[in-house]
Protein: MipA/OmpV family protein
Organism: Viridibacterium curvum
Amino acid sequence: MTHRHTRRLLRTGLIATALLSHGASYAQQESAGGGQPPEGWGLGVVASASQKPYRDVDGKAEVWPMLTYENRWIRLFGPGLDVKLGKTGPVSYALTAGMSREGYRASDSSYLDGMDERKGGIWLGGRVMWEAGFAKLSAAWQADASSHSDGQKVTLGVERRFAVDNLGFTPRVKAIWLDRKYVDYYYGVSASEARSNRPQYAGSSTVNSELGLRVDYRLTPAQTVFLDAGVTMLGSAIKDSPLVGRSTVGEARLGYLYRF
């Protein structure tokens, strides 16, 4: 089997996992109030609505099946997989794998006509999480293992869950550093792609910031519904791209999860 075929099989497997688990990030936060993470399988459905920053590209609404699983060693969530490496007091460590659905096709809008396709990718890396008394802090590094952008990203996050009986609220703040290769791949315009209304553009590293809120309600010990909404403020190197038509992008997910 060639390297290309091996990589294609790996990508297909991760895409299938992502389709099943998209939107299930709620599952790993269910115990954020201080309990142990729940173990076992979860099954549900999630509906999402999201925007892309590209000029004249419409928002997208989708519905996905949702599969979650967690035990002592792994955590499946959407869209990705954590391999747990252990804990040191309140600090935990994990290797991460996930799939990005970023990018575009030239057919997505008339403005992108003549642009080469920009593909999503498989991202591998690691994460450190600290259960501080006042909040949950996290730091993650990931690199594009698909060799599409060859980019890297670093994410710093803070969140805290507040609970009132069966109702939970989890606000979050994130800062996402994106390196030059990432920005240039997804938002750059090469000389061959430049047009009179689309000048050549070379990306540089930048920082996006995100604000979000997750609300969950436990219907029964096994059943939960949740709503997760967030807005991302784009960094200057992305906003300056001629391909970009907005300074912020939003996403919302509404889901139902049954734990076995």
Summary: The mean pLDDT is 87. The chain has one domain: 3-259.
